[in-house]
Structure formats: C-alpha cells, structure tokens
Design goal:
The complex is a heterodimer of chains A (255) and B (658). The mean pLDDT of chain A is 96. In chain A, helix 2 packs antiparallel against helix 6 and helix 5 crosses helix 8. Chain A has eight helices and seven strands; from the N terminus they run ββαβββββααααααα. Chain B is of the alpha+beta class. Among the domains of chain B are: 155 residues, Succinate dehydrogenase/fumarate reductase flavoprotein, catalytic domain (Flavocytochrome C3, Chain A, domain 1); 138 residues, Fumarate reductase/succinate dehydrogenase flavoprotein-like, C-terminal domain (Methane Monooxygenase Hydroxylase, Chain G, domain 1), CATH 1.20.58.100. Chain B is built from 17 helices and 19 strands. In chain B, helix 3 runs parallel beside helix 12 and helix 10 crosses helix 11. The longest helix of chain B is centred in the middle third of the chain and has 27 residues. Classes of the chains: A alpha+beta (255), B alpha+beta (658). The interface between A and B is large, with 79 and 86 residues.
Amino acid sequence: MQHYKMNLTIQVWRQKNALEKGQFESYQVKDISSEMSFLEMFDVLNEQLLQEGKDPVAFDHDCREGICGMCSMYINGKPHGPWQANTTCQLHMRAFKDGDTIVVEPWRAQAFPVIKDLVVDRSAFDRIIQAGGYVSVGTSGNTIDANVIPIEKQKADMAFAAAMCIGCGACVAACKNSSAMLFLSAKVSHLSLLPQGQPERKIRVLNMLNKMDEEGFGACTNTNACEATCPKEISVTNIARLNLEYLNASLSKQD
Amino acid sequence: MILESKIPEGSIESKWTQYKGHCKLVNPPNKRKMTILVIGTGLAGASAAATLGELGYKVKAFCFQDSPRRAHSIAAQGGINAAKNYPNDGDSVFRLFYDTIKGGDYRSREANVHRLAEVSSNIIDQCVAQGVPFAREYSGLLSNRSFGGTQVQRTFYAAGQTGQQLLIGAYQALERQIAIGNVTMYNRHEMLDVVVKDGKAVGIIVRNLLDGKIERFAGTAVLLCSGGYGNVFYLSTNAMGANATAAWKAHNKGALFANPCFTQIHPTCIPVSGEYQSKLTLMSESLRNDGRIWVPKKKGDERHPADIPEDERDYYLERKYPAFGNLVPRDVASRAAKEQCDTGLGVGTSKKAVYLDFGSAIERYGKEKAHIQDIHNPSIDKIKELGRIVLSEKYGNLFDMYMKITGENPYLQPMRIYPAVHYTMGGLWVDYELQSTVKGLYVLGEANFSDHGANRLGASSLMQGLADGYFVIPYTLGNNLAQEIYNKPISTDDPIFDISEKAVRTQIEKLMNIKGKTSADTFHKRLGKIMWDKCGMARNEKNLKEAIIEIQALKKEFWQDLKIPGSQNEFNPELEKAGRIADFIELGELMCIDALHRNESCGGHFREEYQTPEGEALRQDEQFSYVAAWHRKAEHEWELFKEPLVFDSIKLAQRNYK
C-alpha cells in the first residue's frame, strides 16, 4: 500500500455549550499521513490549537476500535464519514487526498442535544432500553443449564446480527426525520428472535416505542438512510420485524 | 500490617460452598437502608450494580463515559471460558483451575482461582437466560473453541464480539434495575477520591465532567470496578479513557497495590505505524486457532510473503513448542515474537512485526467445504474461495478491522502482527472476599490482582469480571455488611467529606495553575516510552533503575510545565487527561520498583537475568512465591508487604508447553 502526506482544511462546528449559538471554524493541518486514523488527525489538530492558545475541539471517543459506539462525527455530510460500514474512529486518512476540505459536524437531532462542539447527549438511548430492552430475568445464576433450550442456528445468528448494534446513533443522525427506528428495531429483533425474549415480547415493543416517541425522535418514512450509514450494517428488515411485532402486540393487547 | 487473605478452611473443592453456607446475611429491609457506590460499569461493575440492586441494596453507579454500555469490556473479542465440558474433551472445574494457575505461572491465590472455575458454568447459564446470542452449532447447542494455554475447547463466543454481547447483557440487566429504581446511574462522572473515616471507606468525591461540579456521595460500601492500568504505557489496546485514577486514589488512601509489575503484553496486535499513533488494536487470540505464525528464515528477506516458499519460512512457535504450537500462552508467544524481531527477522517496513498466516486454514476449510458440497476435484481457486467464506464466518469482523486499519487484505496475504500492552494482572490487593486493605472498599474485575497471577489466559478476563460481579460480591458483601446494620449511615455533611473535597479541589487548581507549555498527551507519550523500553516485555536491573530516575524527573517537569486550556468549571477533556496522567506517572514509578524488587522471571514479568538456557522465564520460588503488596508512605516511598502463596492442590513446576 502506497502511503502519502497531505495538507487539509478542516471546517469544524464549534459550540461552547447547549445554550450558546455555534458556528463553523476553519483550520489548516499539515503533513497528515495517509496511515493516520481520522481521530488521530483530530489529535494533531487539537495539539496545534492548544499550542496556539485556542480551545481544542471537544469530541467523544473511547475504544478507537469501532465497538464502543462513543465516536460520533458527521463528516462531509455523512455520519462516520465516507466509508461503508464504518465508525469515525476506524476511518483512516487514506480516504482523503492532499488539498481536501473536510467538514465536520455533530450528530444533529432534537433528541441528541449538543453538549459542546461535536459532543452530543445520547442518554435518550439508555432510556429507551430502560423501557424494556432486556429480559426480566434475575442475576442469581439459578437458571436452567445453557444447553437445555436449543436455538436454531439461523435464528441465533439473526439475533446476533441485530444485537451487534453499538448504540452510536448514526442511524438517527442520517435520518431526515431523526428517527431511532433502526436502533429500537435492533433491540426488539434481538430479543424477540430468541426463546428467552418471548414472555415479554408484546409489552416490550409497546413500551419501547412509546418511549422513543416521548424522547422526541421522529417517525420512520422508510428512506433506508439508517441502514446505509450503520457501522454494523444492521438491516432495515429489523424495522419491518418491529412493525410486525407492534401490530401483533397492539391487536392482541388486553387492557 | 499483616495481610489476612481470609481463605476459608477446608479442601479446595469445599471452600466456597462452606463459605456460602456460613456467611452472614443482611435481611431485605436492612438492605434497603444501605447505599452501595459502584465505580465503573464494565462487566464487573455493571454485573455487580445490577445484582446488588436486585438484592435490594440502594445502588449508585458511576462511569466516565456517556453511557454504561461504552465500558471497555465491550472490546473483548475472542470469548469467555467455562468448565462446561460440553464437547466432552476432558474439561472439568479442576482442569480450568489448574490451567489458570499454571498459565499464571504460579503467582495467584489457589482459593480464588478455584472459586472462579466453580462459578464459570453459572455465568454461561446466566448469560443465555439474559438473551446473550452466543455462537451455536446446527444442533442448536452452544459452540466452543480453543484458546491459548489449554488443550480443551472451553471457550464460548459470539463471533469476535463476545465482550460486546456480554456487556450488553450486563448493561441491560443494569438498565432494568435503573428503570425499577434500585440503581441510580451517573454518566460522565469521574471518581477523584475515596472518603475514608477511621480506616473505613464511607463515600466518594466525584467530578461531573459536563460542568466540572465536585459532588459528594456517601455509602456503606464502595466497589471499585474501574479496570486495569495498561494505559500507563500510553500505547495499549485499552480505550483512550481507560485509567488508573480511581484505583490510585484508593491506593493513596491506604489500599495496598499488589504485583503492579505484572502486565500482559498480547502477542497479536496490529503494529505501530507512526509517531502519531494513539492506540493499538488487538487481533483476537482466537485467530491463533487457525493462523500460523512465521518469519522468513533469511534475514532481510524483502520478498512478498506469498513468494517465500514453505521451506524458507520458520514457523517458530510450532518448532519450539510442538505440544501447544501456535496456542502457547500469551507471554510465551509475545517473547518469542520479540526474540525473532530482535535477531533481525522481523517483517514489514518497521521490521517490528511477524506474519500471522491463514493460508493453510483457508485450504483446509475450503477442502472440507468442497467435500460437504459434493464438489469433486475442485480447483485450488475454488478451494480458496470456499475457505475464505468459512474464515469470514468465523473472524469476519476482525479481518474487516485489520483491512480498515492497514489497507491490506488478510484473506489474500498474511497479517502483520506485533505484541502490545493489553491487560494488567496486578491491581489493588484484595482478600478472598474482594475487600481491599481499606475496610468497606471492595475491588472487582481487572482492578484487583487476585486471579491471574503473573499471566492471564485468554478468555479469562470476561469470566473473572462477571464472576466477581454476579456471583462473588453478593455473598461477600453481605457477610461484611451484616454488622453495619448497627451503625448509622454517615452524612455527606460530615467534616471528613470537607477534607476530601478540599484535597480534590486543591489538586485540580494546582493542575490548572501550572500554565506551562506542554500538553498532557505529550507527557503521556514520554511516560509510555520509558515504560515500554524499560519495563516492557523484557526488563533488567540497569534499565529499571534508570526508568525510576527518568520517571521522577518527568513528574517534576509535568508539575512545572503542563498546559491545560479552558477552565475547571466546564466540559474540559484536557483537564480530565491531565489528572489521569498525574496518577499514571506515580503508578509507573511503583511498577518499576516492583519489577526491580522481583528478582525472578514469571509470566509477563521477564527479567533478563533470570532465564533458562532455552530463554524461558525462570522463577525463584523459594524467594518470590508471594504477592508483593505495596503501601504508599510518602512521595517516591513505598513499603512492601508480602502475602505468601501456598500451593496445596497444585505442585509448583517449571511451566512447559513443549
């Protein structure tokens, strides 16, 4: 693989806190290696700002290996940037070339208020899980042996594919309605596909959907932008399954 | 001070059962009166908080990330061990116990490790009940694979994302308790001090990272589940935010730090590419099930790996360790890779890498698949095509990650890998009940020292985190809190909280007021370089002595020249980093002191002066068969306390993986 250096213009959304108005600022970074990760380029930019006596850009990040779901940059009009099935931290600078201008914004959604610069508050996701995204089993360990209930491999694999969601919120950021349907459907699918999720199957979907509406996420209009941007390639068929689950639960609801 | 390990009487098999049968209990109304503070929400913290909340305690849980689901347990890839013996290949509780003691090079406490092996099976049952989607066979039953240092298949997994699935399971249990109201969660809060009154932990001081407010919390017990300190080395496979601050503050308040020099260097990580590097990425040990490690036999062989014929490759692990081959324990594999690179046989531009090659596995699986699909005389290309499909089912996410980082395709050419700091076996000293030397302060998961000796076996950290949180602490905490029902809970208005809060504020102001020229990251990188060069994979007396002097000088410079922008009363990531690095510097010094005092090689601690003629770690059991627990007396000054290690069930032996 051929490595190269580049000079770039970075336009970043700067916002002191949730209340103050934000604006774009433009910065130049030099000699960026194509082998760097996108966040390492931001480390370089921040070191530069610090030395110039300016406030470094605040951004969320932690594992830097694409699994914790904390990084969340909207890069050149796409959540997590130009690569498919990718997180911001796994985007590498070989995606860009010398002289490029890169525009970086925070996730934009009413339910994700800006905390500072590129950092947003995604605690609404935790509250959606609190509304029913679990199996109400105790943690005593006094359960049955793990192999007592065989689970069809295909179903187990489908449940796993949905459970891979990292809760980053890119699906919401990509959606013109700021809908959290992909996130929600991943959890509903994961649990409703498994025998352990059956007892609460109906109440779960109703409660979680109500919570999602309450948190200010929009409705789904099936544009599939969420699937296209999801770093874990969670499929929109999960949304179809969610709708079916919702329909079943609503029709058989016993008040 | 005498270190009382509180190991129950009786045979090794009966200790935990006896303990559970006789420990004291707290009844439900009394549990509701007790507040338990849990620091960290990884596998240990989330499972402990959920379990204690469910038992009826009032739990307050804290994490520095924006959600408990981000904790770095999430990044564990390969799997979790349990002595289920589903494959019927000879596994048992005793064998898991034995493998773990041996893998830890006989530097862990027998009773704790046996308990871990005993509860391992419950973990799998518990996780399946929660809906953790482990990998399954076509029969619908759970699938197992092998990990290093064992000859059985006892590792349960969910592709290369086992940690994620287990953490989400624990996170969901935690969120359920939050919804019920048994647990209150404090995201983006960092613990900056343990409040200790009359030798007992009574609360904590935390900083709200969003607005910089310093807050007080009182509790009947404090549980540190704050993970390991691998980031002392700057470059490691840990998350960027992973830190030792909570543990270090506890250490400063009297909790002894045990075996700090026992750090694990993981053999298979993506090599460093440049100065700007911020972290290293692990390629799961499970890849060694199918990958073969090699270097060219000839020095300076610049050919493309595919052009180097079989007989000009040295599969050095298979050559040196025929019985375990590519699946030797991590410390052994790491040192072997270093040895190859040090003798000039390394590959890639930096020459600090070896090949991890899936060529044979692709052909083997391809032939199998062709056979199953009834394809006769398949072409080599067809075989490879089928083999790659099998490999992508097993390790797809890891291969994708490798491709994204390096731009190279591991389906077509071998991965380049090199060892990197991954896990810390050392940690705060705890007794059998997971209580530190400060009463009321408990330490769970990677933050304690107890189960992995001088080297941790793969797929054992997930096991330990969940064992501590789900199955050990609910009993041991109750046993100690039974007497607390007679004590009135302390209030945060107690003067002892004023003293702690003042100390925290003073430290923050001191950091903010240095107003020097150098960023926190720069100091961190310099510390990391000293640690990696002189207290890394191979250590010696001269280097360690130098490192101590260099770290002391670095500390001085840090407190004179640190630069932090902004103010303390706002969201300020640079201030967060600075506080953590201040603690890493002090811990780094202690690690070197510990490494210097331990005149032997064991597990991940390799002192060049102590090796067998074949270059293997040479223990000095007569002198060093103990846990080294350090008490901090003053700046640069520690006192050593020893907990002798007694091996009743397993005979001490030179580890042999040949």
